[in-house]
Amino acid sequence: MTTFILSLSVLLFFHITIIHSLYTSNYDPIFNQIDLFYGTLDGGHMFPGITLPFGMAKIGVDCLDATFGDAYSGYAPGGLITGISMMHESGTGGSPEYGVVSQLPFTSEPWQNLGLRRINDNSDEAVVGVYSVSTPNIDIQFTSGERSGLFKYIYHDDDDTVKVMVNASHHLEGPGRPWWNQHFVNGSVETKDENGYVGYTTISGGWGQQDPWTVYFCGEFNHDFKNVGSFKQDDYESDSSEVSSTTQDESIGLIFEFDQNDLNNGELLSRVGISFISTDQACSNIEDKNFDFDAMVQQNQQNWKNEVFDKFEIEDQNQTLVNQFYTNLYGCHLLPSNRTGENPNWPESAKNDIYYDDFFTIWDTFRSLNPLINVINPTRGSEIIQALINIYQYEGYAPDGRSANQNGKVQGGTNSDILMADAYVKKLPNIDWSLAYQAMVKNAEVAPPYKYDSFAPDASTKEGRGALPDWLEYGYITRNYTRSVTRTVEYSYNDFALSVLAKDVSTQDDYEQYLKRSANWQNLWNFNATAKNLNYTGFLQPRNADGSFNSSTYDPLSCFGCYWGDDEYEGKPIEYGWSVPFDMETLISFYGDDADADDVFIQRLNDMYPLHGSKIADVGNEPSFGTPFYYNYINQQYRSVELVRYIMNTYFKPGASGLPGNSDAGAMQSWVVFSMLGLYPISGTTTYLIASPFLSKITITLENGATVQIKANNLSNENIYVQSLKINGEDWKQNWVDHDTIFGANGGDLEFELGDAPQIWETGERPPSPGHFDK
């Protein structure tokens, strides 16, 4: 018996190795450096399946694993594989979305509550372009196009009959948060010819509380099936070629049977297309025409190279850091999803207008992800802005969060405004800026219709600024609304973004009006507020409608639940105090007179992180993304270098547990990429704060063919401090740089001289505060 088990283990290991080697021997070495399972554990919720940059199809395994918890991206390392579905989101919190249009191969297992067990918890393999997983009887592989996928099943059981379940009701669930669960509403699936099927699925719910939406699908096998049966809940009907249901949460689907003797070495292929328009469009969306699995893998990988990886050339001896850079770069290109031609709600005249969906959410991505896309992929950046404008034009409001072709949820402000300002100052092409400004003004001036949200019943969270009436009346958000501090700070940033466009696109009066309104965050600054164990005063504080500061439960070091019903969302009051990078000049002045303001600034920043103080800031939430770089605002750049290095080395690691929180659609990864470049963007402005690079030399080829070269001379674990800097061959004395200087039409060069001793090398002007306005 022992000998048999050992032999079986060796056989299974050999089997997995053969599958993986097919794609480790033939693809570009760049793909060795990308870990698709990075951030899949410990709350990262990364999607490790197969897609294209911003692809609509995101194909992955959906797992049921009681020990793992809710699998927001479908994936869990253990448990049962309940389906391989065509759509997912990546790195999201809240609850899962999609997990629809599923297949599952099987042999003799009972079809009821079917779930495939992996050979072991480490049997999943993935490289860009192809995913492989082995079960005791079947090896599974799949790859992806833009709106379709190709599956390869290799059956190695002795059973003459092999089967594939097509589950039309399959979708991801979040048992831990049933109030945001998705629900199957209705659907249908029927055979097409002798080797295929078509159908649709309608789903409701999810984190954005979406109304029912429908996805259509079309599947084909490379062999005719010998029999097909249907199931509805627990009842199976043989020789049945169609099934439908209008009963919520009822399970329906077809089971296809094939004669293994007809298969070549047990291999069965299936291609599946998806569409939000029709089954005919789903069929036309199938990109593979010849069941050529290897060719589709190669095309997927070539697309990734062309759009992303070929733009970067790295010279560094630390392979771990190189891998970390490329892995995080990959994670920045999964969301949003390009669905041009796939919006069922737009008029016929607009059906081919640029459309992206799955903004999950702009609250997470506006700080660094979208600015990164605008640098390295301005065509995509432009399309994303065009999509936001088109959504406004045809649906009424640009989204802050969006999935399943519907806006929702708004966590704080209308941060699409900041995306538009960032694209504007970076001169992205093909954008109607007059229409963009209209969308921004709608956010700033027109309160959205009320839609009930049980977690925040005070105002709609679907779109727009739900607390706008307070903003216009008081100049801040009172505690009559939830998330009053968050909204006040973000509405201020949003109105700053309006002022950026108004200066050129509108009138001087509009420019001055929105610039003045961007200073409204100051209305929540209580100069007398104190915090336990901190020897300075002055913090943001919730304020009542009568002008009094709420003090009954106030603590600048606590946001209590930090959730929808609290004054601050995913950040403490002390964290939100830093969330005005467009006007740091005013913030510094609030810390004291010129003689001691800088010292207090340093002390306050030091207190935020364990490097010098305690763990106040949460590096896993976006409100504290920029804070580590802010020593630059007082020309103490070396402190930013130290803190960024500390955070990277402490909280961001290689591997499946490498992220300190949700990836948030790639927001976390964009922070890593910018940090490793030695830069940080102030979104909505042309300013980049300068830290120091993690890599010896990196060359970025911009879309226009110009290059940006970042070189770090003498870089080592100890030599991290900037001793001097040259930009475009000239000595540079500022710890910030303008976008056009390095990312403009001619590209740019940054050459750092690094050493092991802190150095105040910057003697030039401090970073700008373009939103500065004295109230």
From TrEMBL:
Give the signal sequence positions.
Answer: 1-21
Known Pfam families for this protein?
Glyco_hydro_92, Glyco_hydro_92N
- What keywords are assigned to this protein? Signal
Keyword Signal included in the entry's annotation: yes
Presence of the UniProt keyword Transmembrane helix in the record: no
Q: What is a single cellular component term in the Gene Ontology annotation? A: nucleus
User: GO molecular function of the protein, one example?
Assistant: carbohydrate binding
Gene3D superfamilies referenced in this protein's UniProt entry, alphabetically = 2.70.98.10, alpha-1,2-mannosidase (1.20.1050.60), alpha-1,2-mannosidases domains (1.20.1610.10), GH92 mannosidase domain (3.30.2080.10)
Q: What is this protein called?
A: Alpha-1,2-mannosidase, putative
